[in-house]
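re: ur question from yesterday

yeah so i grabbed the chain u mentioned. its 120 aa long if i counted rite. heres the sequnce exactly as i have it in my notes:
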Amino acid sequence: QVQLVESGGGLVQPGGSLRLSCAASGRAFSRYATGWFRQAPGKEREFVAAISMSAGRTTYADSVKGRFTISRDNAKNMVYLQMNSLKPEDTAAYYCAADPTYNVRSYDYWGQGTQVTVSS
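ran it thru and got these structure tokens back, copy pasting raw so excuse formatting
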């Protein structure tokens, strides 16, 4: 089992940057693919980015491609989401997730979320 705790959210102006962090606890974190999802008020949760167990493969939603970068440090049990050139439409609660299978839809373990607000 994996427990996930996100941090790093906040208020940022359009065009700014934030780095989200996800701290994982539990055994064998390196055996889990991890992903970031987001959910804006009144909208469904959507996939943002995923990274494979060894960090050799990444996948991004078209809406964030070229602006966001997912990474992980298995030695520290950490996953990161670097967000650059932020737009108001990036405003949402961001969730870290982990799953034994690399995918962009279904994850077994979820964090509690961290709020990102992009506004001037």
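noticed a couple things. Residues 93 and 115 are 4 Å apart (CA to CA). also The two ends are 40 Å apart (CA to CA).
anyway ttyl
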